[in-house]
Structure prediction request, 138 residues.
Amino acid sequence: MKVLAFYPDRCVGCHICEEVCSQTWFKVTDRDKSRIRIQEHDDGSISALYCVQKGDCIDVCPVNALTRNKQGVVLLREKQCVGCLSCVGFCPYLAMIYHPDQSQPFKCVACGNCVDECPAGALEIVEVETPSAPGPQA
Ligand code: SF4
Ligand code: SF4
Prediction:
């Protein structure tokens, strides 16, 4: 499946990826509307929060709005989502994101736009094996 990979040793903390992401999906530059979150820690280390397409949330959604596509990417079908936010509370990666400007949450779909703009080569779209469960394949 297609998934975003982050290499913390290369990341320079410029946050360009967050700007690119919010521009891509919301046409604004707003970190709170980015599907990737770069976190700088007190010890100088850097980490990133984003969806790793594991798909455990698929079975949490009460209306089957979450599904995995042929590329293995977990998608939120907006027409079906009722905005209960169960997936937001569930996600152990804090990768299903809610913003009060819209009723439905959002997540990384491995579009790769941030990869193209990262000046440090710290992001990549990679192919990994799709987890066998849970949830139906779309
Ligand atoms: S664009 Fe690249 S270098 Fe900049 S914060 Fe994001 S991952 Fe790190
Ligand atoms: S917020 Fe939408 S996608 Fe998430 S669990 Fe609720 S209905 Fe499903």
Q: What stands out?
A: Residues 11-17, 38, 118, 120, 122-123 surround iron/sulfur cluster (ligand 1) (CB under 6 Å). The chain has a mean pLDDT of 94. The beta strands are 2-6, 37-40, 46-49, 66-68, 74-76, 123-127. The chain has one domain: 2-127.
